[in-house]
Design brief:
five-stranded antiparallel beta sheet; 4 helices; alpha+beta; globular; 20% strand; 5 strands; 32% helix; Aspartate Aminotransferase, domain 1
Length: 138
């Protein structure tokens, strides 16, 4: 996708915790869930039958879920073959995209930061989102 230093999985955690009012809670199988105002915006998903390797049928054990602002945003990310984002029928109608940890290096750090920030903005209260945007001149 973009240029610059490649993203790393550790940075998902750092970026999510770097947003205001975030709490990390244990999710299913102790995989972390990042929440703002008790609303999840990024979470590390346990292996599920809807996300599998098409060749082996093995469940992906490395899926991260990011909320998006709208179905249009989701479609834009998933439809763009230059991005590693995908979805499954389980997430039909759900404003989120999936990313395998093993493909995170296809994103630059800046692209990952934008995805995490957008996920936070999609789930934060309007007051918190407005304050963050104003503080960042956006």
């Amino acid at each position: 996708m973009g240029s610059g230093r490649r993203a790393r999985v550790r940075e998902v955690h750092d970026l999510a915790m770097g947003m205001p009012h975030v709490e990390r809670v244990p999710g299913s199988q102790d995989r972390p869930v990042y929440q703002v105002g008790r609303r999840s915006f990024v979470f590390f998903r346990n292996p599920r039958p809807d996300a599998v390797d098409p060749e082996t049928g093995e469940r992906y054990a490395d899926v991260i879920v990011f909320w998006v602002a709208s179905e249009a945003d989701k479609e834009a990310l998933v439809a763009d073959e230059r991005t590693p984002f995908f979805t499954t029928p389980h997430f039909d109608g759900h404003p989120s995209v999936l990313l395998r940890e093993s493909r995170i290096g296809e994103l630059s750090y800046d692209e990952l930061a934008e995805i995490v920030q957008d996920a936070w903005l999609a789930r934060a209260s309007p007051r918190r989102a407005r304050a963050w945007l104003e503080a960042h001149g956006l």
